[in-house]
Design brief:
CATH topology of the largest domain: Rossmann fold
Strand content: 25-35%
Low-confidence stretches: none
CATH class of the largest domain: Alpha Beta
Distance between the termini: 52 Å
Mean pLDDT: 91
Strand order of the largest sheet: 6-5-9-10-11-12
Helix content: 25-40%
Number of strands: 12
CATH architecture of the largest domain: 3-Layer(aba) Sandwich
């Protein structure tokens, strides 16, 4: 059945967004809409221009019999700054402050609109890097890893604090908690990570960096490669962190005035992604 151009454009955009970073052949679209390749190419040009103009990603077309179109979602610098400003506004609430100067973020991590922004921001950071898998630790980092994995179109793996019989054989490491200086253990199933895999580590909150350092050690045990580390929020810490080169979307600190309040602001994301030398 012949499809009108307006309907084609809507459905093509939807399909490309649901299959990010995947090559979709022009033949597939031509058969889907009973349209000539020339018409499909014109439609893709419109979509490419729209994504570029709004700073929401890039659409590349690959010529040849095995070619097609690939949509890579990301944020322009302007859109990233707006997304991070919205996160800062959402966190700037003194009632979020918990004992030990931690900040309550669980409600934000449960919001689909927040997760979409966070996932797209993380995908922006690694848009031109070779990534095979996203890694996080149970439990609060899971929604963030899932959102990032969706935009990067890569699987994500969950590091656990204890063995699950359904995981099969596991690899475990001991690590030092950066904030309370306790020895802890984390485990990952042998089947979930291959030697040589390129891994991005994500988590919800970083204080001393002990958990991130533990995942870094675990990646080394698998003979895999650490591409980078990104957290939703970075807290203030006294002394030296256990990890370097971790990107944060926002920073949240407890200010000890007459009563403790939250001071929130942008993290290192803009500098690390858009202003690096």
């Amino acid at each position: 059945m012949k499809v009108r151009r307006s309907n084609r454009l809507v459905d093509m955009t939807r399909y490309l967004m649901e299959h990010p970073r995947s090559l979709v052949s022009l033949k597939f679209f031509g058969e889907r809409y009973d349209s000539a390749k020339s018409s499909i190419s014109e439609d893709l040009s419109i979509i490419r221009h729209t994504f570029h103009s709004w700073g929401m990603g890039r659409l590349e077309t690959i010529p040849g019999a095995s070619g097609g179109a690939v949509l890579t979602p990301f944020y322009s610098k302007e859109n990233a700054e707006k997304a991070i400003a919205d996160l800062v506004d959402a966190v700037s609430d003194d009632t979020r402050l918990l004992p030990g100067d931690y900040v309550y973020l669980s409600d934000l991590i449960g919001r689909p609109d927040i997760l979409r922004r966070v996932g797209r921001l993380i995908a922006t950071q690694y848009v031109d890097q070779d990534v095979d898998v996203i890694m996080t630790v149970e439990t609060k980092g899971i929604p963030i890893a899932q959102s990032a994995a969706m935009y990067l179109n890569k699987p994500f793996v969950i590091v656990r604090n204890s063995s699950h019989i359904t995981e099969g054989p596991t690899v475990s490491v001991n690590y030092v908690s950066g904030s309370v200086k306790r020895i802890k253990k984390m485990e990952l199933s042998r089947r979930t990570l291959s030697a040589g895999a390129n891994v991005v580590v994500v988590d919800d909150f970083m204080k001393g960096g002990g958990t991130l350092n533990g995942m870094k050690s675990l990646i080394k045990e698998f003979d895999a490669n650490l591409v980078g580390m990104t957290v939703l929020a970075e807290g203030e810490v006294t002394g030296k962190r256990l990890v370097d080169n971790c990107t944060s979307l926002i920073k949240v600190n407890a200010v000890d005035d007459e009563k403790k309040t939250i001071q929130a602001g942008p993290g290192s994301f803009i500098k690390d992604v858009f202003e690096k030398e």
